[in-house]
Amino acid sequence: MLNLTTNTITLQRKDGTRVTIEPSEKPARVKIVEEVIGEIDGIPVVSVTFGEPEGLPEEGTPCIVRGSVFEACRGRKGMYREDRGFSAIRDGDVLVAVTRLVAA
Fold first, then answer.
1. Which of 85, 103, 104, 96 is nearest to 9 (CA)?
2. Residue 99 above 90 pLDDT?
3. pLDDT per position as a tens digit, 63-83
4. Beta-bridge partners for 51
5. Contact of 36 with 44, CB cutoff 8 Å
6. What is the mean pLDDT of residues 22-46?
7. pLDDT (tens digit, 9 = 90+) per residue, 3-16?
8. Is pLDDT above 90 for 50?
9. What's 45-103 look like in SS3?
10. Among 10, 24, 33, 80, who pairs with 101 as Cys (CB 3.0-4.6 Å)?
């Protein structure tokens, strides 16, 4: 499993053991374009579009990516992001490990 983010990722298996995956030297990236499309009560409303991702392995190669790359590649086989929701293990506000991955 490749870690194409800029952070170390710790995964906790069902049996409680943990595996740590160090970040890649060349993380996957995607250009994000934001356009202000309106305003509601003085608060800007933006539209967000994602460009073509860069730095990805061949489709089907298991890899974990950051949220923006994940959103730009919905449906891509082998691509995952951390599930940082209620199943994640935290020490206060600090993420310790994730117990699930979300498939693109």
1. 96
2. yes
3. 999 999 999 999 999 999 999
4. none
5. yes
6. 95
7. 999 999 999 999 99
8. no
9. EEEEEECCCECCCCCCCCEECCHHHHHHCCCCCCEEEECCCCCCEEECCEEEEECCEEE
10. 80
- Residue 39, classed as helix, strand or coil, is strand
**Would you say 53 and 29 are in contact if contact means Cβ atoms under 8 Å apart?**
yes
Residue 94 has pLDDT above 90, yes or no: yes
Structure-token pair, residue 34: 């934001």
> What type of residue is 45?
V
**How far apart (Å, rounded) are the C-alpha atoms in residues 104 and 37?**
28
Q: How does DSSP classify residue 77?
A: T
Structural contact between residues 95 and 84, judged by C-beta atoms closer than 8 angstroms: yes
Q: What are phi and psi of 67, to 5 degrees?
A: -55, -40
Q: Please name the residue that has the structure tokens 């992001």.
A: 81
Phi, psi of 69 (to 5 degrees): -65, -40
